[in-house]
Design goal:
Strand content: 5-15%
Order of helices and strands: HHEEHHHHHEEH
Strand order of the largest sheet: 1-2
Structural class: alpha+beta
Shape: extended
Radius of gyration: 23 Å
Helix content: 40-55%
Distance between the termini: 73 Å
Number of helices: 8
Number of strands: 4
């Protein structure tokens, strides 16, 4: 085969590959498509995965992370106490929400209704910085580090997503509670909220 014919074959194959990569992927099906995929693909002991995509004032952000359940259960949880404690104050959560919504300098943040004095604002900013939830940029602007945006939203969703969504008059995301055998728990079907023993 001459060089010209080989190049033509390569170009044809390349065009087919490019076309295949542009083909739409099969959309997820059902309310629990992520859970179903995880059941099939997870490690034997299970896996916790979180992911998200957000369009914010600072840009578009996506994040995905997963850990085997065994690693999570054997890890020293006390090591994350400081990071979680920084989120345990209502004013700090309001500061983070404001920063994610584009209020990034101290002048903007000082106008939040709940903030008292400038000293109180700087105290809360320092606590959030120390725990890694905020970073200071140029000219004293604040930002939630990109690697912390989706995890922060996941923590808020896990802690009260249904409550937060209900305040806006909307039903929250899909949830499914499983019993110890991987079957839907009695009285805790899709959308029913957490099951209590």
């Amino acid at each position: 085969m001459d060089l010209e014919a080989r190049i033509q074959r390569l170009e044809t194959r390349l065009a087919a590959l490019e076309q295949a990569s542009r083909a739409p992927s099969k959309p997820p099906e059902g309310d629990f498509w992520a859970l179903e995929h995880l059941r099939q693909a997870a490690r034997p002991e299970g896996e916790v995965v979180f992911a998200g995509y957000a369009e914010l004032a600072s840009g578009s952000w996506g994040w995905q992370w997963g850990l085997p359940v065994g690693e999570l259960l054997s890890a020293p949880w006390a090591e994350v106490a400081e990071s979680l404690a920084a989120l345990g104050h209502p004013l700090r959560l309001e500061i983070l929400r404001a920063v994610l919504n584009g209020q990034s300098n101290t002048q903007d943040l000082q106008h939040l209704a709940e903030i008292g004095t400038t000293g109180q604002l700087y105290h809360h900013l320092k606590e959030l910085q120390g725990a890694g939830w905020l970073k200071v940029g140029k000219r004293g602007t604040y930002a939630v580090p990109p690697e912390r945006i989706i995890p922060l939203l996941v923590i808020l969703s896990a802690a009260g997503g249904e409550t937060l969504a209900m305040r806006k008059g909307k039903k929250g995301g899909s949830d499914e509670i499983l019993d110890g055998h991987g079957n839907p728990a009695a009285g805790a079907g899709p959308g029913s909220g957490p099951a209590h023993p």
